[in-house]
Structures are given as C-alpha cells and as structure tokens.
Amino acid sequence: MSEQTLAEAWGLVPAVLGIVAVGLVLGLVVAAVDRVVVSGAPRAAVEPIRSSARLLFEQRRTTLAPDRLLWRIGCVAVPTLALLSLAVVPVGGRTLWSTSADLVWFNAMEALLWAAVWLVGWGPNAVHALTGGYRFLAQGLAYELPLMFALITAGLAAGSLRATDIFATQENLWFVVTMPVAFVVFVASAAAFAFWGPFAAPAGPDIAGGVASELSGVDRLLVEAGRVVFLGASAAMAAALFLGGDSGPWLPGPLWHLLKTLAVVAALVWVGRRMPVLRPDRTVEVGWMVLVPLTLLQALVVAVLVLNGFYA
Predict the structure, then answer these.
(1) For residue 95, what is the enclosing H or E element?
(2) Residue 205: pLDDT above 90?
(3) What pLDDT shows up at residue 10?
(4) CA distance readout (Å), 52 to 62, 127, 209
(5) Which of 30, 145, 177, 291 is deepest in the core (most CB within 10 A)?
(6) 91 - beta bridge partners?
(7) What is the largest CA-CA distance in the chain?
(8) Is 21 or 154 the better-scoring residue by pLDDT?
(9) Transmembrane residues, as ranges (predicted)?
C-alpha cells in the first residue's frame, strides 16, 4: 500500500469519528425526548443511558436453528447505515462526508436499511420476528418512492444533488414554504423506516414485538440505537433540506441547525406518541394511494416554479 493511500485512509479517521460522535449524541437526544414525552418527567431523560448500560451486560437469547450470520449482519448493519446516512447532512456549510450526490447517498442508505431490518426479522428463524420482517418489507416498499420523490423535489429546486447546495439555495426562502407536502412526506417516510409511532406495526404487540421480538442484549441495543440515530439523522436532513439549515438571525448557524433538528425530533416524538399504530394494510395503502400521488404533484409544482425562475 502506497504512502498516499495510507495518508488518505488516515484522513478518513476524523470524519468517521465525527460521524459516530454526532450519531451517538443525536440518538441519545431522540431517545431522551421520547422518554420525557412518554413519562412527562424531565428526569426520565437519563433512562436511555441506564437502559443501554443494562443491555450491554444482558445475555443474548437464542432460538432454534437461527441463521446467526444473517442475524448478526442485520443487527450491525442497522446502526451502521443510520450513521452513514448522517454523513451527508450539511452542518456549518459542509458535510462530514463529501459526495457529489448527497441525496442519492442518503436514499441508498435508507434502502439498505430496509434490507438490514428484514435480516433482523429473518435471522432468528421465529414466526413473530419473520412476520415483523415481512411487514417491514411491505411498509418500506410503500414509503421508498415517496421519500425518494421528496428528496428529488428539493434537489430539483436547487438544481443540485448536493445537500450543501440545497441549503445555500434557501438563503432567502425556506423550501418548506413552497414544498410543504415534500417536507411532511419526507418526515413521515423517515418515521416509517424507523418503524416509529403510527408506523410501528413491524414491531407491534399483536405479534409479540415482531421484528424485535427475539432481540436481547447487545443485539437489541444495536437495533434500537440504529432506529433513533436514523430518526435523528432524518430530522437533521429535513432541517437542512426544507428549513434552511443554518440560516437564522443572531445565533450561530450550527446552533440554528441544532434547534431546527430538535424541533423536528420533538414534533416526531410528540405526534408519534399520540397517534395509534396503523394496521399494516392501512399503512401501505396510505403510502401507495396518497403519498406517491401527492409527492408527484408537489414535484410538478416545483418544476413549474423552476421553469419560471422562482428559485434563481
């Protein structure tokens, strides 16, 4: 291996450490907000830390004839892909991991997350976990296109697939003003991929916890961490793509982005905890019959605005 290659490899270390650090903080914030909303007591914010420590020392359960390799791959892939989706979120005018097509990268990580969660359900060789895995497959397929169309709409307005370019285009007007449907669909689709709130059917109590029913110890910690990190990464991306990212008066830019991210997280948790879990067939029906046409219509409206020089 040449010295140049080694230097490039070492150069990635700060980016990787930064992604992990930001991901852990975001995950803890999402979990803490969730516990506070559920319990109504601010002291419940430390409960995720206690639960994580307990799971670290909890013994793993097993099932009869599991596919351990695929099971472990799925459990490790969920938090890994959530962290990688965070890598292209612009903060302070730059991303932790620079690509020429940040929106494609984010969407690819979300699509791979779909496969990883299904492996978590397939691996244990247990009926409830497998049922939850197939529920997630159907749900992910229904919400993949709406999420992709929402991302494309933001990219269309900016004329770029770079998250930093999209953020810069919102200097005078946040995209949420002209594309509110894309914003809501993006956030809802992110919740669906984290099987959160009304989209929690893949881990529903009617199937004994579904895709997470056989998880314990470190495996459960990894999957739960992946869920909250992905939700936090999606909230940060929503703030960048639709809420102007760092833009705002008086306060430093990164602080504005943090406040907007926290606002999206709080809204997700508050709404998610107050809505009933949708039946799997209803969830899929909403995705295909409502969200796909709405996002296509939203993209059409934005395309007309682009042709008329609205975002120039």
Answers:
(1) strand 94-95
(2) no
(3) 40
(4) 20, 27, 19
(5) 30
(6) 94
(7) 62
(8) 154
(9) 12-33, 69-91, 103-121, 141-161, 173-196, 225-243, 255-271, 291-311
User: Looking at 14-23, 129-138, 217-226, 255-264, which range is the least confident one?
Assistant: 14-23
Query: 168-194 as b/e, with b when 16 or more CB fall inside 10 Å?
Result: bbbeeebbbebbebbbbbbbbbbbbbb
Q: Which residues pair with 95 in a beta bridge?
A: 90
What are the φ and ψ backbone dihedral angles of 101, each rounded to 5 degrees?
Answer: -145, 70
What sign does the CA torsion over 78, 83, 87, 88 have? positive
Distance, CA of 29 to CA of 23 (rounded, Å): 10
CB 246, CB 95: distance < 8 Å: no
**pTM of the entire structure?**
0.87
Which residues is 73 bridged to in the sheet?
none
**What pLDDT does 4 receive?**
43
Q: Would strands 94-95 and 90-91 be described as parallel, antiparallel, or unpaired?
A: antiparallel
Q: Is the pLDDT assigned to residue 52 strictly greater than 90? A: no
Q: Which amino acid is at 19?
A: I
pLDDT at residue 256 greater than cutoff 70: yes
Contacts 24+ apart (CB under 8 A), 52-55: 52/221, 52/225, 55/216, 55/217, 55/218, 55/220, 55/221
Structure tokens at 20: 């992990």
Q: Are 213 and 133 in contact (CB under 8 A)?
A: no
User: CA-to-CA distance for 110 and 194, rounded, in angstroms?
Assistant: 10
pLDDT band at 227 (very low <50, low <70, confident <90, very high): confident
Helix-, strand-, coil-residue percentages of the chain, each rounded to 5: 75, 0, 20
Alpha helices for 123-173 (secondary structure H): 127-158, 163-169
245, two tokens: 């990212």
Query: Could you tell me the two tokens for 156?
Result: 């269309």
DSSP letters of 166-213?
A: HHHHTTSS-HHHH-HHHHHHHHHHHHHHTT-GGG-GGG-GGGTTGGGT
